Amino acid sequence: MIEEYYNNWLKHRTVLHELLDQVGPEHVFFKPWSEGFSLGELAVHIVSSTDMFLATVKNGQFASPGTPRDFQTMDEVREIVQEFTHKSKRDFSVLKEADLNNEIDIFGYMAPGKYWIESLIDHEIHHKGQLFVYARMTGAEKVPFFKQLPSRAVNDAAAD
């Protein structure tokens, strides 16, 4: 079950990296409205929230989100996303099936770890969708599919 969650999450996280590669350096602080996250803040929010959910499930109790380092450029945002991606991969690798069944309280809501893992994936998908809109609004023309696609089927007759 953990491997399925990991693979599903990774198909989305891979696209987050690809999407951020389409954003020009001048758009790191782009906001579609004054009270919203900037583009860079939203990307960092995604990865730090995933880190919080994973640490919570791994530890069996709520773990406050870590404070990511400050950034001024899109390259720094991409570095932060990469660092958190590596950490999340490590955290997924040490999860145990029992962690998925542990009841965990997050802000007064009790649910098993698997609920919180599903929530971290849903949260990432939700905000990544927002980033697609941000990227388009800043002029990105070639954005990736929302989820990493499987390998293309090879037509044996065409290969001859």
TrEMBL record:
<keyword id="KW-0479">Metal-binding</keyword>
<protein>
    <submittedName>
        <fullName>DinB family protein</fullName>
    </submittedName>
</protein>
<dbReference type="InterPro" id="IPR034660">
    <property type="entry name" value="DinB/YfiT-like"/>
</dbReference>
<dbReference type="InterPro" id="IPR007837">
    <property type="entry name" value="DinB"/>
</dbReference>
<comment type="similarity">
    <text>Belongs to the DinB family.</text>
</comment>
<dbReference type="Pfam" id="PF05163">
    <property type="entry name" value="DinB"/>
</dbReference>
